[in-house]
Every structure is written in structure tokens, then in C-alpha cells.
Amino acid sequence: MIKPKKQLGQNFLNSGKIAEKIASFAPADTKRVLEVGPGKGILTKSLLEKGFSVIAVEKDNELIATIASQNQYLSIKQNEQNIKNLLRFYKTNFKVK
Q: For burial by CB atoms within 10 Å, which of 4, 39, 55, 64 has the most?
């Protein structure tokens, strides 16, 4: 069993029903979803089942191994610089409401 690492601020989604509800909010015309911090992959699985292409960015190597073993079609990246670049890109190009 994987336990959340508090130093990384981890909190895991454990409910498949909640994950399905969250995935249902994605616009129908969306093809690709960026998931930052996929945790144990519960939401990732729901998104993949709905036909989305998921790019997951995870900092925790233990979680990367777990999620990658669950689905061969998932593109998952782990690299501190990639994460910093990603956050900088979204901060300068998108408004969060």
C-alpha cells in the first residue's frame, strides 16, 4: 500500500465514483488531458476509460512505477525541470479562475 508523503503535499483520491464524476466534467471536444500529480492513478484510469489521451506529470518515482504498470497507454513524465517549465508555462499563458 502506498502512503501519502506529506513532504510532497500528497493526498490521494481513492473513490472510483468520484473520479468518474470529475472525468465527466471534461468538455466533449477535449482529446488530451494534462494531469499534474496523478497520485495512485484513480482519476487517470477514469480519463483513459473515457477515451482521453492523458499526459501525467508526477514527481514521486514510486508513484510513477505504480501508475505506469497499470496502463501502457499512459504518457507519464518525471523530471524536476519539466515540472518547473510546465508550471511556468501555465502561469504565464492561462488564467485560473
A: 39
C-alpha cell at 63: 508513484
What does the domain layout of the chain look like in residue ranges? 6-93
In angstroms, rounded to a whole number, what is the distance separating the alpha carbons of residues 96 and 89? 13
Domain 6-93 grouped into CATH 2.60.40.10: no
Q: What is the pTM of this model?
A: 0.71
Confidence of residue 80 (pLDDT cuts 50, 70, 90): low
Host H or E run for residue 89 = helix 80-93
Task: Quote the CA–CA distance of 34 and 83 in Å, as a whole number.
Answer: 12
pLDDT tens-digit readout, 22-71: 999 988 788 888 888 888 889 988 998 898 888 777 878 788 777 777 76
Question: Which residues are registered as beta bridge partners of 34?
Answer: 55
